[in-house]
Amino acid sequence: MSQAFDVLVIGGGPGGYIAAIRAAQLGFKVACAESNAYDDPKGEPRLGGTCLNVGCIPSKALLASSEEFEKIGHHAADHGIKVGSVSIDSKKMVQRKDDIVTKMTGGIQFLFRKNKITLLKGHASFEGKGADGYQVKIDGKDKETVTAKNVIIATGSKARHLPGLPVDNVLICDNEGALKFESVPKKLGVIGAGVIGLELGSVWRRLGSEVTVLEALPSFLAACDVSIAKEAQKLFTKQGLNINMGVKIGDVKADKKGVVVNYTDSAGKAAKLECDRLIVSVGRVPNTDKLGLDKIGLKVDERGFIPIDDHTCATTAAGVYAVGDVVRGPMLAHKAEDEGVLAAEVIAGQKPHIDYNCIPWVIYTDPEIAWVGKTEQALKEAGIAYKAGQFPFMANGRALGMGRSDGFVKVLADAKTDEILGVHIIGPNASDLIAEAAVAMEFKAAAEDIARICHPHPSLSEVVREAALATDQRALNM
User: Does the record carry Phosphoprotein as a key word (predicted)?
Assistant: First the structure.
């Protein structure tokens, strides 16, 4: 007799494992299917998805290591600290990253046991629907078919590869291969000036690589507020990243000597990039193939996403939900988590809500970039009257003491009501500072609200307050 569950979650990444835990908390009998081993030494499926295994967590571990290396080698003297020559043990750095990943994925297994969630080890695909629910085949070491009254699809995404450009994750790498370099390449090429490309390019630039970034779009970080993108390009170029916009990639050749990328620059001139290794970071595509969606009457759109109801994450198949990277919206782990919680609560008959305008974005470069809400250009295009306030970290005592005074905070507020419409940060700890803005926007706060709240001194958070004050030309420290 096959196992039967109230809720089956397909995919154990941020959206999936969080959905499973929330569903278990709500009293459902829950299972989660996961097939990806992510280089597990025993070949066992590993929970956490791309984020914990080959994305957010490992990349941040490498970023932290490279930041420490750069601080010691280039900034310690500013504090009166004398050091000798500094070297990097790349293998140990990568091993530290792997240890953190193992600890985190093991933590999810503990949470599954704690919440009595059944882990189904294998690839899940729909077989059909019967009177008792959906039949889902689990193709792993032990093949079985289970039944579930409700199914949450949370299978995430994978790196997009360019046609005719084979990724071997040795010389030509996507995000997975770029996390495994055991030595610092002398010359590193990066195709794509997006979040992943900039973060991984920053890692190896700090460790000594000569990094060249090739981007097809004419505008740098087009999703960001224009003033933030302009400041970021200036600072990254100053740090040593060679950023080329508006290029057209031609043929790419790899041999034992390295990689050669032929391309046309923004002026239409033929150019060539010779590098030891190449990172291809041109976006991600949803993992919606091989799910057997047709067997339950579901189809994906032209980009491979599963259409859903915007308020409940429900698909057109009754009792089937989809969350995270397989549906519309930004491919962000925290967005997937919130949707996972929402889907579980909808199944339980609750009325949860997600305000997608209040989901923060972060790029973990140095300085960090974070924003929530509308950009200035979006407000102009929409014809919304607004006022802007901006304050630099260079006027903040805490930032100066840390030796990290690049960047600024920008607050955009409605010209009539003063409601906060967007907050944009480039500077130290932006990933933490943006949370205040997200909370304020969820509560429909005005810029005056942040301006009137007492912030600790000295702290970086004072810059957020000063930017809010600046929307009314009332900044106190500038």
Answer: no
